[in-house]
Amino acid sequence: MNDILKGYAKAATPELIARYNALDCAEVYAPVLDLLPTTPSRIADIGAGTGRDAAWFAAKGHTVLAVEPVKELRDAGIRQHTSAQIEWLDDSLPGLEKARGHEPFDMMTLCGVWQHINEASRPLAMANLAGMIKPYGLLVMSLRHGPAPADRPVFPIAPDDTINSAEGLGFNLIRRIETGSIQAGNVALGVHWTWLALQMGLPCK
Fold it and tell me: Whole-model pTM?
């Protein structure tokens, strides 16, 4: 994971940051847009990058914990998105040691993150996510399939394995959608995505 974070730090040029920020969040989240909370909620954006999504959520009245371990991306986000609704945190999967100290969240998002977690670390990562969400809270994940830059490697993802892992921790699958990429460069590489929306059930009595 450290090598991947170093790769992102090296790649965090003004051009890359501008390209990330130029994406329309409504288009990014189109596969699950109707499931997102419409009343003020507590959201954790895991792997927040430059804060594009966090700022979009904050503008809708939500309070957001933007979790981003790459200093170069986090600093860019702090400079560009000054909403008091956003709290930035230097933390990372699979441990999320700092984030787990916060109150449980109504929704957690991992947009283009899970592919960077290797198979051996995913059970711990999923367990930690499950421990951070409220009953009936929503976990939204986009799983990337396809090649990536050599300095930011990705690991293969079997969506069924991800679903089974989440369901074993109390989540219920409420949506699964396969989509293409909305970025021209990724389209050319054949990158495609699986979007998952998982809702946490009630705690055992």
Answer: 0.92
